[in-house]
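Hi there,

I know you've been waiting on this one. I reran it after we fixed the sequence typo, so this is the corrected version. Both the input and the resulting structure follow.
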Amino acid sequence: MIPESALPGFRTSLRGQLLFPGEPAYEEARKIHNALIDRHPAMIVRCAGVADVMAAVWDYPDVARRSFRHRYDPTGAPP
């Protein structure tokens, strides 16, 4: 998990969105095509470009990730 002290800087560095439970766009962003999977991640990064992906993946490698648009099956969802 990203240290809480790093979140303000991480949020401002993104071109995309950083969403947390309770925020308006969180519920829609966490849904996937397979209704049998109902995950509630601590946060969701909606990347708007390569720099966002690099920040989310390389700077914080221990954070579980899900990528969609390339796979339809549930293997794109973290455990």
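Quick highlight: The radius of gyration is 13 Å.

Best,
R. S.
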